Structure formats: structure tokens, C-alpha cells
Amino acid sequence: MLEAEGLVRRIGGRRVVDEVSLAVSRSEVLCLLGPSGCGKSTTLRMIAGVERPDGGRIRLDGEEVSGPDGFVPPERRSVGLMFQDFALFPHLDIARNVAFGLRDLPRADRERRALDLLGRVGLADHVGRYPHELSGGEQQRVALARALAPGPRLMLMDEPFSGLDDRLRDGVRDATISLLAESGTSALLVTHDPGEAMRVADRIALLRAGRIVQLGSPRELYERPSDRRVAEFFSDVNVFTGTVAGSEVETALGRFTAPGLADGTAAEVVVRPHHLRVTAGGDPNPGAGGAAVQLERIRFIGRESLLDLRTGGGLPVRAVLPGALSFEPGARLWISVSRDHAFVFDAVPRD
User: pTM higher than 0.85, yes or no?
Assistant: First the structure.
């Protein structure tokens, strides 16, 4: 229902959005994910119509709303907007806030729609209250109800939960996604938080320097990252380097196949800390690969233990294991990894 093709936005001579193309299907939640300055919010603002692209096309339900042939202003795009700043009207109670965008309807219909939506976001008993009388989470739910009141074909949300504390955020976020699903509303959500993106999105578009570097399901981006920087955006990683020879790369963690990389290429083997296997003593399975390490520090953090290790060559390694462990600092251990959990990439410079 949303199609964006080759979007470009220039600011000060620099392309802050550089040939971005994406599509959102009906009832789908797509997250634009990336660090500050990657172009994700600018992309959303162009789709909303509050910024005009310097190139590309945007279609909503097949109607071109931005392109070489014309530009439809935001108020005529039938999209809902939610931002970190809830922008509620302080002089109106919450029912009138929700009904504000329904002025074309008879008064009774406006009131009925507002009360219905406030009930669906769990605020039926707060109807006569004003925004300043509500918590941050309650204000966010009012903002959601107001955005959904006109029945938009697409919801656009820019970091809508980042102003809430951790305890509120999960509940408000889950309620928001449930209501979008219940109403069959498509959504494009901007966030810098990979955990949030994985929790709410059907698909994720990861942006870097104005471009989409990978687009797919949360599982695809986590389990099949396109490069080291994609992998480390979703979690800490250990990086073992080497040079490709005979379609393999020899590293401090052992030998790994390097499909698609030419001999002589500098390569990186990327392993997430919780994918490392750690055993006491020496190699429990000679010939299977791995490395001897010394335990430098161990910390218990509830359901897991964090182990800071160092190889004989001085390379720091981190492992995350379930539960509390009896290893002591100074212990000699062995680390290894399943080849299914090791990503081999062409080496890229550190940011």
C-alpha cells in the first residue's frame, strides 16, 4: 500500500537520503532502523509530506503523492502521525483531543468515535481528564487514539516510545502494536533501538549513511547479516581476523570456509558472545577448531554470566553463558563455535 522508489533528500549539498526504496504491505509494520543521522527520520518525513524529496516517487494505494508530476500535501495523504513529542492540546480534555481531527463528522459521531478509541487504548475511565493529569504512557495512548481516529491508511511513527521510561515503554509499545494489528493499519516506525525493532516489526530496513544496507525480517537480519556492521548493530560481537587462502580463513578461533572471497582477501569471522561454547581445560574435540583462553573476569547479571577472556595471542574475547558459573579468574578454558553461528565477511574498516 506504500511504495517509495529512489527517494533522495539533499541538505547543504549532502545526500542525507540516498536512493531509498521500500514498500509496506497492508497491515504490515516496517521499521526504519539505524543510528542518529542515518536518514531514517528524514525518509519518514518525506513519506508524511512534511519534507519534499529532491528525487524519487512515493505512492499510497497506487496514487502518486510525490514525484516529478506533482506533490500532495500531508493533510490530503490520509496518514496518521505520531512523534516522540505527543503534541496534545493542553486546553482540551482527552476525548476532545481524540475527536479534534474529525470535524467533518456530526458531533455525536465524533464523540462516539473518540470514546470507542479511548476504550480500546484502556483510557475509558479517564475521559474528562486533561493531558497534564495523565502519565507519560497515558499521554502516548491518547496520541495513538487521536492519530487513529480519522482511519488513516498508514501510520507514521518517529521514535514514539523513546520518551518513556523502561517500565512504561514495553506496555505502551505492545498495546500500540496490538491496536494497529486489530485495526488492520499499516505502519512505518522509526527507531534507533534494535531490540524495539525486532520486537514490533514484521520487517526491518537498516539504514547507514542515507542508504538501506539490509532489508528483511528481524530473524533474517540477525541470523544472516550482510556485513560485520549489521551484525554488531544487533549485539556485541567478537571479531577474529585472517587472510583467505584456498577458500578458507585461518583465525585465532580456527579455520572457517570463506565462500565468495578471493585468496589474499582480508577477512573477518564474526561471532556473537552467546554463541561461543566454553569448556574447562583443553580442547574437548581435537580437530574441530577453537582456542585456548584465560578467564580475566566473570560477572553474574541475573539469567546470564559475562566472561571476559583473552587468547594466548592477547586477543580479548567475550562470552555470555546462561546461569551462574563456578569458573574463577585465571582459569584456563577452551572456546569454540558452531560453524552455523560464525559469519565470514570481507574485512571493513572500523567506524
Answer: yes
Mean pLDDT comparison of 21-35, 123-137, 147-161, highest-scoring range: 21-35
Pairwise pLDDT comparison (47 vs 161), residue with the higher score:
47
* Residue 6 to residue 1: CA distance in whole angstroms: 17
The amino acid that residue 113 corresponds to is: R
- Grid cell in block for residue 187: 505502519
- Residue 164 — very low, low, confident or very high, per pLDDT cuts 50/70/90? confident
**CA-CA-CA-CA dihedral for 122, 80, 187, 86, to nearest 10:** -60
CATH no., domain 2-229: 3.40.50.300
Residue 33: phi, psi to the nearest 5?
-120, 140
**Nearest CA among 351, 317, 349 for reference residue 333:** 317
pLDDT at residue 350, rounded to an integer: 66
Per-position b or e across 245-281, b if 16+ CB within 10 A of its CB: eeebbbbbbbebebeebeeeeebbbbbbbebbebeee
CA dihedral 174, 179, 185, 191 (to 10 degrees): -20
Phi-psi category of residue 127: left, alpha or beta, with phi > 0 → left and psi -120 to 50 → alpha: alpha
| 31 neighbors 200 (Cβ within 8 angstroms) | yes
Q: Coil, strand, or helix at residue 230?
A: helix
State the architecture of 235-346 in CATH terms. Beta Barrel (2.40)
| Average pLDDT in the chain | 93
Q: Distance (Å, rounded) from C-alpha 197 to C-alpha 237?
A: 19
pLDDT at 351: 59
| Predicted pLDDT at 232 | 95
Domain ranges for the chain, please list them.
2-229, 235-346
Q: What is the three-class DSSP state of 302?
A: coil
Q: What are phi and psi of 260, to 5 degrees?
A: 80, 0
